[in-house]
Write a structure and sequence with these properties.
- The complex is a heterodimer of chains A (about 300) and B (about 260).
- With about 300 residues, chain A is mainly alpha-helical.
- Chain A has two domains: about 1-50; about 65-295, MetI-like (MetI-like fold, Orthogonal Bundle).
- In chain A, about 75% of the residues lie in helices and about 0% in strands.
- Chain A has helices at about 10-15, 20-50, 65-75, 75-110, 110-125, 130-140, 145-155, 165-190, 195-205, 210-220, 220-235, 240-245, 255-265, 265-295.
- The two termini of chain A are about 35 Å apart.
- Chain B is an all-alpha fold and about 260 residues long.
- Chain B has helices at about 1-20, 20-25, 45-50, 50-85, 90-100, 105-120, 125-150, 155-160, 165-195, 200-205, 210-220, 230-250, 255.
- The two termini of chain B are about 25 Å apart.
- Classes of the chains: A mainly alpha (about 300), B mainly alpha (about 260).
- Chains A and B meet through helix 2, helix 4, helix 5, helix 6 and helix 8 of A and helix 1, helix 4, helix 5, helix 6 and helix 7 of B.
Chain lengths: ~300, ~260
Amino acid sequence: MSSPRGALRSAEDFARGRPMLVSLLLLAPVLLLLLLFFFAPLAELANLSTFAQQPTRQVPRPPHSLVNYVKILSDPFYLQVAATSVLVGGCTTIATLAIAYPIAFYVTRIAGWERTLISVACLLPIFVNVIVGILGWYILLLPYGLVQQVLSALGLVEGSLQLLRSFPALVVVLTYEHMPFAVLILVSSLQAVPIDKINAARLLGASTARIVANIIMPLTMPGLVASAILVFSLSASSYLTPILIGGQRIRVLPLMIFSYGTELLNWPLAAALAIVLLVIVVAITYLFAAAMNRLSKRGQWEMV
Amino acid sequence: MLGLRIFTYLIVALMLLPVLVTFPVALSAVPRISFPPVGFSSRWFLAILSDQVLLGTIARSLWLGLGAALIGVLVALPCAFVVERGRFRGRDLLETGITSPRMMPQIVLALALLVFFEAIGLAESFVGLVISHLVITIPFAFRTLLVSVATLDRRLEWSSDVLGASPTQTFLRVMAPQLKTGLIAALIFTFILSFNNVTLALFLSGFGERTLPVEMFQRMNVGGMTPVIPAISFVLALIGVVLFVFLDRTIGVYRFLAGRD
């Protein structure tokens, strides 16, 4: 039942006995907005990606063809760019989860100001503009910047070092940026692990390693999968960090989409590249989720 | 546990370092980015206040954030009620539909809106920018409010109803107080989301109509950036930390940011 709480008196009378209509009215602004400015533009983008050439005033609707997709899928350059995007997303996801999981575990065991301090640090990239974080890393990674000074002082490197514009630097900054999303999901997932189960296992003599592997990991698998999917789809489609930290050296799909979309003004090709990026992200996350599901059905990740 | 503690604090240091490093760099006396900084002066912090372009972008970003947050929360609240309390077929589909912009890579959405706005004459307009931000703030506000609506105590509503209050009275005097925290959280988080957005604004804001993050991005990307950008960065970081600590100590950040997952 849904009644129009907060509506005017006359609206209350009008609404009585018409729950379906009221629901629709309540939903209308959001549904209209999303239909008009989310679903319709995306459909139009897919349509545009099949145009043989950039629409002009003379030819607003060029003939449809798959020429853009053929161009992307048959050109080793674009395939390389797509592979780089997947690699960047994959490396970032692994690094982020490997760091976020232990931290999330630690956060669930503490309280008070210590918890606030660690949370501030790990969730900061949500609260502070992404450009600020990227600028900080940019300063740290500059030639003869702080990172290099520290590495030199430790005797790990000698001479000048090209940290900016490198693949590891890109993955480090993307990991920094997406840490909050993984930490958030994993904390709420780890918090839901019933303490009784852990205590029972401990009472029965299980080691900490065994408890983590046989109880905590399986129970938090959905959280791990969800955060992996989120971090992958965000980092593989990130534009700002690749352009500011990677420069034009590490070419990923979002860089191509931006330059064809706003600089070279080849919208059909930009649209096709965007659809390719979307399909890659959706396909990989879907296959990953399906594979993890399968593993859990086979018993390996069985709920305890 | 000690090893875990050391690891955690190491990462904490690494997460704070990039934000903290903007401070000494902003104190530089010379107009270029260098670490360690050359000389010492507060001129770049003062320069924020005399940089008319920067001040204009700050004002625009504030209005944009306020608009996207207020409208977003206002239209998302009824949706949260319908989805949380409705018992009809397609309810899960509806929920997925409303939250689906969250799963869409922003660069794809930005390009789609650029093309679409160009066709309907909203390109490079403030209205277009607000609409694009609503697309990303609504799902977020919706999910935050779902949590609030789900935790409403129904018995209080029934009591209010039985005692003769009209639905309007029940909403304003029984439900609104319970929803207050969730509404404030949703407003603050959607404001932050909109204020910090770069990708959509980069595609959709006009040349003289940049938002603050886009202006920062452009100055960084084009080169010739002066320490005024690290200075404004540090100020933004400070505001972010204060806001965070306030929210965490009052509402609890994990509860509202994580949503229902």
